[in-house]
Amino acid sequence: MDAIKKRERMYRSIIGQLQNDGYMAIAKSLTSQVKPFNPCTSSDFLFKAYSIGLEQVEEDKTDQSYIPNVLESIPPGRGIDLEFENEVQILSPEAVQYETCYVTAHKAPTRAATFSKNGQYIATGSVDTSIKVLDVERMLAKSILPSDINNMMEQSSQAGGMADHPVIRTLYDHVDEITCIEFHPTQQILVSGSRDYTVKVFDFTKSSAKRATKAISEVERVKTLAMHPAGDFILVGTHHPVIRLYDLETFQCFVSCHPADQHKGPINCISYNQTGNYYASGSKDGEIKIWDGVSSRCIMKFPDAHDGDDVCSVVFSRNGKYLLTSGKDSVARLWSLAAPTHPVLVYTGAELSGKQTHQAQAVFNHTEDYVFFPDEQTVSLCCWCARTGERQRLLSLGHQGPARRIAHSPTIAAFITSSEDFRARFWYKSPLSE
């Protein structure tokens, strides 16, 4: 009953404010639809309440004693929120300002890459079945000029024993291509998926570690993984249309109890939101689904999200209000979960060079000011303002083949690209550079 009274008062305040501001026709129309129990009189109460609330929000942002919630505590910035933002000053760099800082090579095409949640480590995976774990600080310490890349590549194999070498672990336990990698959010544990029908868990705390400590046998080739924010569970997507949830301690498997919830094609991508209370999936069937993180029930669908083309990537904004997706139509889209019928923004331009052949990902930068997306045809990185969709300058990626994977650091202006040219490039924008 208390909620009903509050809602009644809210509607009366809206009508009173409209009358006070001279919008009599709108106030009359709203009154006929809402039918409040008590008559509404002209009042400036709503504006005053809004002003007081806005001042309090601004004070909370600057108050050093203010304790932010989990989402607000993720540095830096507060992420994208189109509902409340008007003019936002962008301090983070656009894509063209990044430079190659380090290059590592595999013996075959490199198709998997990811950052740890704290931004301290990067992992790359290859068709040669190897996984490399790299230390970000060490890569920054060995920052190179573009002219030094070839020389560095010739010497990197001889530098494996150096204490300060960026590659801190090389892991081997798969027998086919590494397709996806995920770090545990709090422990030095890495989980990988492969075309060999397995998911493997590596503990890389020891320098001698090369083999997996645990393994899951899947029914099909593994395509994508998503680690729960707490690190207790992992989602697995394969060439089979059913998504599986595994308990990382017991390896017990869970699936939705309703077959109609499942996709109708292979699972291309999965992503949890920041709290883990729901997750998103994209499939070769062209559909995006939002799932309840506890019951594993499908609670929302985006049919033909990319005009029927394969969905290649899904990633939540920090506040969980938005979902950034990309498809084989070479278009990135931003969806509001509050109004999922149409995207709120469409990031266009990459499709002008044609639809992509391989899967590529659209990602936010670390502040969610920009959206990055690798253009397969030109081997360059497209960049858009996340809030307006305005296209920025292209960054040439320097690869000799398509960039198959991009991952941006969650904490600094840095990202990794992995390519068919056997190389993974670490990109960084130094705060000291102009």
Separation of termini?
59 Å
Strand arrangement, major sheet: 1-28-27-26
What would you call the shape?
A: globular
Report the uncertain regions: 64-76, 145-149, 156-161
The level of helicity is: 10-25%
Rg from C-alpha positions?
Answer: 24 Å
- Arithmetic mean pLDDT: 87
- The structural class is alpha+beta
Strand segment tally: 28
Strand percentage:
25-35%
Counted by DSSP, the helix tally is 5
Largest sheet: 4 strands, antiparallel
Q: Quick summary of this structure?
A:
The protein has 434 residues and is of the alpha+beta class. 14% of the residues lie in helices and 34% in strands.
Description:
The chain is built from 5 helices and 28 strands. The chain has 434 residues and is of the alpha+beta class. The strands form 7 sheets. It has a 4-stranded antiparallel β-sheet. α1 runs antiparallel to α2. It is globular, with a radius of gyration of 24 Å. About 6% of the residues have low confidence.
Spell out the key features of this protein.
single chain, 434 residues, alpha+beta, four-stranded antiparallel β-sheet, 5 helices
Question: What is the topology?
Answer:
Layout: H1 2-20, H2 24-34, H3 45-62, E1 99-105, E2 110-115, E3 121-126, E4 130-135, H4 136-141, H5 149-156, E5 167-172, E6 178-183, E7 189-194, E8 198-203, E9 214-217, E10 222-227, E11 233-238, E12 244-247, E13 253-254, E14 267-272, E15 278-283, E16 288-292, E17 298-302, E18 311-316, E19 322-327, E20 332-336, E21 345-347, E22 363-364, E23 370-375, E24 380-385, E25 395-396, E26 403-408, E27 414-419, E28 423-428
Antiparallel strand pairs: 1-28, 2-3, 3-4, 4-5, 6-7, 7-8, 8-9, 10-11, 11-12, 12-13, 14-15, 15-16, 16-17, 18-19, 19-20, 20-21, 22-23, 23-24, 24-25, 26-27, 27-28
Helix pairs in contact: 1-2
